[in-house]
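User: Please predict structures.

Assistant: First:
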Amino acid sequence: MSFIPFKTSTVNFSLPKKFTFPFYYEPHPLAKLASEELQDYLKTQTDWEHNFGLDAAKKGDKIGKMFGVLVVENEQKELGYLVAFSGKLADKTLLPHFVPPVYDLLSKDGFFERDRIVAIAISRDIMALEADVKFLKLQKEVTQNLKLVEELLLPETLKLKTWKKDRARRKKIALKNLSATDYKSFQEQIKRESLNDNFYYRELSIYYDEKYLVNKPFVDAHSSKIMALQKIRNGKSNAIQEKLFNEYRFLNRNGMEKKLTAIFDDLSLSPPAGTGDCAAPKLLQYAFKNNLKIITMAEFWWGNSENATIRKHGNFYPSCKGKCEPILGYMLKDVLMDPNPFLLNPGKDKHIVTVYEDDSLAIINKPTELLSVPGKAISDSVFTRMQQKYPNATGPLLVHRLDMATSGIMLIAKTKKAHQFLQSQFILRTIKKRYIALLDGIIKADKGEINLPLRVDLEDRPRQLVCYDYGKKALTKWIVLERKNGKTRIQFFPITGRTHQLRVHSAHALGLNTPIVGDDLYGNKGERLHLHAEYIKFIHPVSKETMEFNLEADF
């Protein structure tokens, strides 16, 4: 039985009236207590071994993990909790103390391990072909010689183009000056010239191929073998994934069961790899299967963060949206939950202050928690308010955006011409911007530069992650202003303007490794995000004068 009684007395704890909304929450004291007891277990247990990266002396891969706790009440009205981990822990899916997976893909009787061995064998064959010494040597030679042949043929290619243009020129002249009979003869001559030129080029190409690319057929055949095996492996992997998804069946509080594929099909979505193995679905599945009343839940990260994402050791995090939102939407159907904050408008009573305006533009001070543009559930935004304030304005109005949680200067264009002129300055990066932030820790250096490319986390929007393969360039310069009470006041100078750029560059381990105070995505939730756009400098679209504005932060 995975039901764990609390070690600490819970007599003085009041139960929440509603279950936790899993995608944005402040952990209930009972969930915090359960998390503390689980963390004590992780520090002292000897049942298994996993390198979380917390001990620098430990060798091997350092892999942090997301853990979850679910406070429940059993049929005897006793209060306790369940614990789970996301994915695998110590290379296992099933460990003592934790609830079992929804489907144990590592089961000895299951198909996964058998099919995975086949896929691994194909991968080994691919690796052997890719590492073949003869192939690598000849591939390098062929690559170099292809470039050489291209260089040798370039002058001839240019000649062909020149001769073709010359023939076209001569045809135009002949059409005007020759009789119909003579022009027909001239066309035949031109056609022969074209055929001769192309024949010469083909023969020259064949000559160069035979001279320099004699090993290309071997390289092409070897590459084809690799691609054929890759295609087979990809097919096997997709088949394994599809079979896996069909094995995952989830319960809701009413005892109804639904396949993972059906849950995603209902939403016209495709489940990402690894869906169904996160902590939250495991916890709810076990509770519903064993008639346990669910009270509250929380998830926290334990150990080193991955290079791409931002996860701080011991911090609480919401359930991921890409994998878990569809599943939990089904599992928690008809469960009385805390309100979804994404449907509420925290900026409803916030006011926009106009700092400056003329016939072409306006400078406003955007309050924190007000959207720049309408969202899926909330239409109220800077854009809609500016539409109401300037009904006769032409063009898109907004020249740039600020995150919902960020306050400060925004530039509004009243005319299409002004918008184009101002936006071109953003594109050319001639506009100067400065932000002020309060970081939740001490930065030792006085100034620096952060260059970490960013892209959206496709499985957990709107979070961003560092990605050197597909991310867009993101560059930030910074200067420390003050260190006080364990916090650092800092100025940011973003050279680029990526989504969440300053927040990620602050919090990421390869950046400042210190989140902004109040950052509910990359740090710890607080009263507000302590990030403010305080300064802007640009050229006026009409007067062409340099304009500067500075707005102090209220923190």
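Second:
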Amino acid sequence: MRDVKDRIEKLKKAINKYRYQYHVLNKLEISEEALDSLKHELKKLEDEYPDLITPDSPTQRVAGKALKGFKKITHIVPMLSLEDVFSEEEFSDWEKRITKLLHISKTPELFAELKFDGLAVSLVYKDGVLDRAATRGNGKVGEDVTQNIRTIEAIPLRLEAKPPLGGLAFRKNEIEIRGEIIITRKGFEKINRERVKKGEQIYANPRNLAAGSLRQLDPKITASRRLDFHAYDIVGDLGQRTHTKEHEILRELGFKTDKEAHIAKTHEDIFRFKEKVEREREKLEYEIDGLVIQVNDNAVFDKLGVAGKAPRGAIAFKFAPKEATTIVKNILVQVGRTGKLTPVAVLEPIQVGGVTISRASLHNEEEIKRLGLKIGDTVIVGRAGDVIPDVRKVLKELRRGKEKEFYLPRKCPVCEHRAERSKDSPLTFCMNKNCPAKHREGIYHFVGKNAFDIDGLGPKIVDVLLDQGLIQDAADIFDLKEGDIKPLERFGEKSAENIVRAIHAKEKISLPRFLIALGILHVGEETATDLADRFGSLEKLRASSLEEINEVENIGDIVTKSVYDWFRDPYNKRYLEKLLRRVGIEKYHAPSGKFKGKTFVLTGSLEAITRDEAKARIRKLGGKTSESVGKETDYVVAGNEPGSKMDKAQKLGVKIIDEKEFLKML
């Protein structure tokens, strides 16, 4: 119980710090997803231990203090925020809670709308004319932004229709409309490009831009930002018995509402709608981060009341976060095909980008020092390039004093031979040439996707072939016969036949893929292509000098030495001759075309073609692809759910194109 209490106090302190940055200072050291993850953990702990809930908990209030410099406005009815859920299971738990409170067996009709990534505001109309506007602020007191709101064309200065004014929560002739100030993706990118040209700091996300624009002291600057507004709530009684009717009235009054809004009879309807929206999310004009789901019947909604900071009858169903917080339970060491010792964080399982992550590479000792990471730390994890799990930040303020330092071993954890730090890099290697881990990992790499790509020959089958003594190295794979494989456990005649056929289909290979398959340290997809472009054949590369290799574009001294030394190692020479007796290398022609000299970076998922097909077509037209965005990048191709590469491209002013434009270029 003491540990739980301590964790809750640490979480409250951290959340308050980051919430103040986000709501008051309009900046944030960590991502919104990571902050959501911390809040989610606190809410779950408080649900489990309700006696530990205190009035000062972030779960019991909306936000921080309002900014100075604007007149304060007190909201007559508080602007509440919503509780977040991230999974179908958590959503179902919310449904059970409300049906239990209502003493009914079936979930009431629900209304689902998009959760815009913008800034919530309140608009008060007096006699049908806009009288005042305020930000949400801390939920009770906001900032007067009336002058800036008047510059937004999506907001009517006079209501289109005169609403009935009976039974309002306000003074007799007033009505309050609530909604979200947002900006289009194109508008967001355009403003950031302009700021890059002027040498100004770019906005991290559309919500920050909307907030920053609305808080300008000069309304002309706000007007130039072309902000938009979507209404979603009427405070008071205009005869709206359902939330659906509320949207209809808002449209009659002259406001935009969510075109995607959807009535759902069952939770299956909600899940299908969420999947559809998440699939098409990147095609939307605006950024969204989930759905808002609420009970459609307003009387039932009001009956459910409020719990802490949130109405019980509504929930924010968030999309899978791109970042989340979790705890590092341990750090293990893996040995790769080159003998490199890689520390790997063992994590409390957490969902990031729709995938459950339990491990993340820490790369090397220097990275651990840079992060200041200890075993037991709370960390922010993401997925590098939208795929590979990585640890991005340590939240040191959540430490309890029980965390442990990690030291990379000086002996290989597999063969126990000595391990040495490289003179040229922060990497540590097992010095035993016959280390079993190197051997096994090297064969996994050889048959893998970027090398020989032998269908059906994965790590588990390679393990069986090695354990049974059927292969000693990767070259032996091409000598396998059906009769060798068929007697093995779980391998029938058909599967043995399929594997042998797949092996024979790969007895001819391109020069770049062959170079990747050799497993030379530092030689990946791009370096292999650069070497193939420069030398044109394996014979010329094998005979080349250090100076000749060093002349290759994008190849530095460390890679040069690694390539040169590999071809002069006696073991590698024997292995290469053996391999060349079994496979052939296709004649190589360096590509040339309209993309010559151009470098592309792909981010997010493409719909019309796979990422590998896109890379192949770029190279066929003479271009290059890279995994990271830099000053030398010419184009970033943004597919569905682009990751941090797109943010970096915006910062550097690199041209960003969507899939449609990319296909047109091809």
